[in-house]
Amino acid sequence: MKIGELAETSGVPAKTIRYYEEIGLLPPPEREANGYRSYDRDALQRLRFVQHAQAAGLTLREISQVLAIRSEGRAPCVHVRDLLHRHLVQIDERLAELRATKRELQSLARHADALDPADCPEDVICSILVRAG
Amino acid sequence: MKIGELAETSGVPAKTIRYYEEIGLLPPPEREANGYRSYDRDALQRLRFVQHAQAAGLTLREISQVLAIRSEGRAPCVHVRDLLHRHLVQIDERLAELRATKRELQSLARHADALDPADCPEDVICSILVRAG
DNA sequence: GTACGCCTTCCAGTGCACTGGAAGGTCAAG
DNA sequence: CTTGACCTTCCAGTGCACTGGAAGGCGTAC
After folding, report:
1. Average pLDDT, chain B
2. Chain B hits for A10, Cβ within 8 Å
3. Chain B residues inside the 8 Å CB shell of A99
4. 3-state secondary structure string, chain A?
5. What span, in angstroms and rounded, lies between the C-alpha atoms of A59 and A124?
6. For the segment B35-54, what is each residue's pLDDT rounded down to a tens digit?
7. Which CATH number describes the domain made up of A1-74?
8. By C-alpha distance, which of B117, A60, B130 is closest to A68?
9. Residue A80 CA distance to nucleotide C14 C1' (Å)
10. Highest mean pLDDT of the ranges A14-28, B69-83, B86-100
């Protein structure tokens, strides 16, 4: 399977697949006589794994770690479990932040919608936004 | 007021204040005879405004736009109102994404917690994560 | 006079995940 | 024989918001 086909099948751009190889996320594949990359089914499986792991919120660096552990023959279960729990905490934090920002923004938007631009005082930069934060 | 004092008062590192000036977010301040930056109260107000606007989720680029509009003498109200509404939409999208990821992660974590590492089959990269995505 | 802390500029790097483009090789169809 | 799709490498840029460090000037206290 050439890189274009792998890209097509996986939905990951060829450029990105080469990039994954470059950063050591994917192992260098076999090459055809003409130098083209030749991928087997494992490559697709790995790539799908990367997509799954990304969907789960892991960074490429973390995915590399999991992949490396596995290629050493150890089962990455414990490691992955830790990663998952840590990510859940992070997501909760981020959710809380976002919700706070949203409340902030909603309050500002309500204020903005009720405001006549003519009322904008000259001495402050923006009377909508000075209420933020 | 020298940059260190402004940094102290605002909580924004001096390095960052210089960076803001460099990208045109803050206007170049007066200089003392020795070349030190000399800030007035307006500078602190602007810096606070930047912090508020950032807290509201605006990017530095957007904040620059608001500041630029204001410095042209026009009230940025309408512009800001649009920004706010667009940001609210973005935040809702991001919230939905995050919540989906969280559900994903929770399901994976439950699976991981219930799993004995010895059960990890050799032929898949990680039986926890193949379920993701 | 020297030590220390503050200030200056400038250049470069961080993190994250790509993405673009140039210059050129390969292969099958028309 | 040329066109076009595909592949290669390499270098460089994107976006966002900083951050680090070197090399040197300034100002005050001891």
Report:
1. 81
2. none
3. 95
4. CCHHHHHHHHCCCHHHHHHHHHCCCCCCCEECCCCCEECCHHHHHHHHHHHHHHHCCCCHHHHHHHHHHHHCCCCCHHHHHHHHHHHHHHHHHHHHHHHHHHHHHHHHHHHHHCCCHHHCCCCCCCCCHHHCC
5. 42
6. 999 999 999 999 998 988 88
7. 1.10.1660.10
8. A60
9. 26
10. A14-28
Name the pLDDT band for A133 (thresholds 50, 70, 90). Answer: very low
Instruction: Spell out the domain ranges in chain B.
Output: 3-131
pLDDT digits (tens, 9 = 90+) for A13-61: 999 999 999 999 999 999 999 999 999 999 999 999 898 888 777 889 8
The C-alpha atoms of residue B59 and residue B81 are separated, in whole angstroms, by: 15
Contacts of A2 (CB under 8 A, 6+ apart): A32, A36, A37, A38, A39
**Beta carbon of A60 within 7 Å of strand C?**
yes
Nucleotides in C strand less than 7 A from protein CB: 6-9, 16-21, 25-27
CATH 3.40.190.10, domain B3-131, yes or no: no
